[in-house]
Amino acid sequence: MQILESGIGELIQPFDLDEFREWNRTKKSRKLTDKLMSEQEAIREFVYNGCYIGTELYGTVRCPMSLAREVVRQGFKDLRVCGQGVLELDLWLAAGIVKKLDITYIGLEVYGIPPSLRRAVESGQVETCVEWSNASISWRMKAAAMGVPFLPTRSMLGTDMLKYSAAKVVEDPFTGIKVALLPALILDVALIHVHRADKHGNCQIEGISGFALEMARACKRLVISAEEIIPTEEIRKYPDRTMIPYYLVDAVVHAPYGSHPGEMAYLYGRDEPGIKEWVEMSKTAEGAREYLDKYVYGLKNHAAYLDLIGKQRLQECVELREKRI
Amino acid sequence: MTEQTYSKTELMICVAARLFEDGATCFIGTGIPMLAAMLASKTTAPNLVPVFEFGGTGAILEELPRAVGEARTFHKGISALGICDTMETAQRGFIDYGFLGGAQIDPYGNLNSVTIGDHDHPKARLPGSGGGNDVGSHCWQTIAIMQHDARRFVPKVDFLTTPGFLTGPGARDAAGLPPGTGPIAVVSTLALMDYDPDTCRMRLKSLHPGVTVDEVKANTGFELIIPAQVGQNDPPSAEELRLLREEIDPTKFYI
Questions:
Q1: Is the pTM of this model over 0.95?
Q2: Which chain B residues are within 8 Å of A100, Cβ to Cβ?
Q3: Between A87-95 and A285-292, two packed helices, what is the crossing angle to 10 degrees?
Q4: Span B86-111, average pLDDT
Q5: What is the ipTM, given to two decimal places?
Q6: A121·B122 Cβ contact <8 A
Q7: DSSP B121
Q8: CB-based contact A55:A85 (threshold 8 Å)
Q9: Mean per-residue pLDDT for B216-243?
Q10: A139–B127: do the CB atoms touch at under 8 Å?
Q11: Mean pLDDT over residues B71-89, rounded?
Q12: Continuous segment of H or E residues that includes residue B14
């Protein structure tokens, strides 16, 4: 196939499919072992300086916020990050732990452009931003999940997105149309928050699944946080509900309200004042630091975070949940 | 009927809402497109099928979503799947319309939401494409909703994030984008625009109440095509305003 155009963006996570197969053969146990651990243990065990890491879904929706805060608390650096995010990646950017970004969208949604993203990128603290659309980054994970080196798409064609990505345009050998080839993305570490998991890591998700299925199958290490830990008998009663099977999972962390101040479908709604607090405080670097001191560095763990938020506010979030009809 | 006062944003939402086609599948982005879709579903397009990129399809928009992944995007919906499902649905031709925003738009309807200034040393880093590029690539027809001023309506976008007509006639096809797709309208705080079929350049279609052609020209950073006949957009009706203020955004989250 002749390459018609190549993006100039860096492939910041080069991949080797055969090595991934070997990894999945030798480093991922097929045994139903107990993988329950604290967030400190899970993050210390599987995250490392310079690793390529991603979170799912995003900041205000079913996001592993407790794990994201723990990554900041443990002081990792030079992270290469797959960037579809709101609060969680904004915290990482404000904490100065991100070196390179495969960026799709980092914004505060209705509250606009995050000042911490602007500070981190415009100052050069983040060395590289490689651009991808939301579909493209998900399909890159899907390619890895399929065990193939790329997926073709008609996204990104004709735009600066293609130019500043690491995709390549070719003529499809079957039909002759132009397609952009999206390179597979195999993450070193992925963090995913779910509704329920058993101790082995079998996971159930309610509501939209975002890109959890793809990301869970496209990473070498997967840390799951779950609102509830359920017995394996419950998993086996409803095997059709298992979206992430245990053998993909390396650690299971019990994290009630793990998505706070974001929401969790059918369990709790978003904490608008909590989100606004970050929006306001992150306007200055000093404010962002103050926020990190208050909610991350100054607290031992997620349990301490929940104590600080308080039962009443959490109950108010529960009242705001989407109800089953 | 007594004369109503309304904001430019309310007017823009009403004009955008009237563009939704009943029964069509529509990709809805965060913010103003959500309000417009909700207003449309309560007025002229009760069978609208909203699609939200992270997986919600066919929601009944009873309460205003504040994020494209939140539970209201699949409230009483048809399905709650994932981003690959919705994006693949768009890529194989199932999504009729996409409603989009951006920081800049050019005469060919190309949008920028990545950087102001040079990409590698930006004056301002913006959030990024998100699903914008995908929506502009795969939906049959796209409609942009924008604040109207000369900083946003620019001769050339600093970073071409979401494809409009790219460089003009034939450019989308040449780039490999699916044939028959492209932008059809821009709803701004001043007017409704469409595109001249021969040149693919933006053209004034109809003015909001009280707005003059000169005002639109003065707030557009490129030469907008002004046809001989320029229409007038109706002001928001009392019912549209009531729905917006009492049912759609009673807490004034957006408006």
A1: yes
A2: none
A3: 110
A4: 97
A5: 0.97
A6: yes
A7: S
A8: yes
A9: 98
A10: no
A11: 97
A12: helix B8-17
